[in-house]
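Hey, resending since the last one bounced:
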Amino acid sequence: MKIRAKKKLKEEIRDFRKTRSLYAIPLLLIGILGLVLPIIPGILLIVYGLMLLVPGRKMKIFSVK
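The structure tokens again:
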């Protein structure tokens, strides 16, 4: 039963990797809109969108030296 759950999880991760740009692009667009409108947290949405588009750069975005 655990093997089936692991295979299902791997398939879900693979599917998400294929469709993550569908989530990232609207986040970036709403984030840009949020820079103009004070109600929407623009910078936060832009950061989330960038983290989805370029997942390997997460630590560089948040690193403070």
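The CA atoms of residues 25 and 49 lie 7 Å apart.

Sorry for the duplicate.
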